[in-house]
Each structure stands twice: as C-alpha cells, then as structure tokens.
Amino acid sequence: MSNLVLPIPESLTIYRGHLKEFFAGMMLKLDVNSHKNTPEMDDVPEVINKLLEEVQEFRDQLLKDPSDENTLVELMDAANFSFLAYIAVKNKYGTKSRKDRIVDEFLLVDTKRGKVFCKKPREGYRYKIGDEIKGSLKQGEREIELQKVKDVGYGVSVPRSHVVWYAEHGMWPTELVHIDGVGTNDAIDNLWVKPAQNKDKLPRFVVRHKDGKYGYHRHHKGVILSTGRYDTSAQAATEGKLKWIARVKESDLT
After folding, report:
1. 45-61 burial, b for 16+ CB within 10 Å, e for fewer?
2. What is the pLDDT of residues 150-205, one digit of tens each?
3. I need a surface site. Which of 67, 149, 185, 187 has the fewest CB within 10 A?
4. Domain regions of the chain by residue span
5. Mean pLDDT score of the chain, rounded to an integer?
6. For the whole model, what pTM was predicted?
C-alpha cells in the first residue's frame, strides 16, 4: 500500500480530521469495488446515472435518519462516483487538468535525453526561455515544481521522470522504474512502468484482502455487511453469501 500526501490549505486545517476520515472512507469503497468492471473507462452517462443514484440514496437516508452513520457513508459513495466521473471525462474527452496544461504550455521536454526546459516564462519563476529546469534532488530522483502554493492554495511537485513520461505518452504514470537503476537518468528509454499486481476475476461481492484471504461484502439498506474471511474465493461466494442472507434476515427482524 502506498501513501498519498496532500497539503491542506490553512483555511481547511480545522477540518483535518474530517477530511482524513472522508477520503479514507471514499478510498475504501473504491478498493472494495476495484475488482469489478466499473464504468469509468468510456461510459460517462452510466457514471452520471450511478452518481445520481447515490445522491438519491443520501437524500433518502437523510430523511429517514440523519443521525445514522450510513448518512455519511452515502456521501462517501457519491464522492466515489464523482471520482469515477473525473476519470471517465479525462479518458473519453481528453480533458486537461491544471497539471497537464502547465506542462503543455510552459515546459519543453526532451524525452530522448530526459531533460526539461522552459518554453514560456511564468510569473514568480526564475527560468527564461531555453533554461534547463533541473528541479530539486529528492530521494535520488529529480523533482520539478509545477505549481507554487501561492498560485492556487497548494503546491504541486512531480518527479521529472513523470513529466518525461507524460510528454511522450500523454498520460501520467503511477509508478516508474529506472531500468539502469540511476534515478536521475530520465531518458524515456530508461523508464518502465511498474505493472500493477493482477487481480483475480472474482465472483460478485467477493473481495480479496491484503493478507490473501477472501471476504463477502454486500450492501443491505445502504450498509456493507461483511461475513468473515475465507481461504478461497469460492468459499467466500458460497459460505459468505449464506452468512450474509442470515444476517439480513436477523437485522430485518430486529
């Protein structure tokens, strides 16, 4: 598991705890459903429909019992599909993010040599047209500042290797490996995307945990009911489902 570190604007520091809880819940729901064929790749209307469904579920839960923790869970679900809609729009329409536009407009990238140069001067930056932008050395790799905190409230710095990869392929990598082991050699031929671990095609509602065990996670009245851990996905799909049905019947009687 990797960590995502984001600076929090001063105006939002009082909500630090809430932000951590909210994003953690959202990412948990994304992870639980990551084995499924989600509609984020090319079906924007389907993502929108799912998002509207989640908003309606939140509204229903709010009217039913606003003090129930599931009211907050429904908001996390809505944020989940907002993220999928973000990915869908970028994938289908090629919509540029601020980071994309900064690289396209202000940087000239020599992918063959793995170098980055100033293409257009920017206010608040010392580089002139043609100057090489080496950035700073961080953990053995070059990192380039794309955005200062004062620009929009938060700073953005990315590894130079990622800028090179984006310039060559038009998309941002998640994790790159330097083939020769030299972290400052960002030539495109020296970069390789570390593949994500392949996930088994799992039965519906079955998830695989980090320890290799399997679980059966399924909603009932907006709440995820989990039914233990199993050695195989088949066990989770059969025994887990039976336990889930029993728990649903029990909860309906109480």
Report:
1. ebbeebbeebbebbeeb
2. 555 456 889 999 999 999 988 888 888 898 889 999 999 999 876 554 444 677 77
3. 67
4. 10-93, 98-193, 206-253
5. 81
6. 0.56
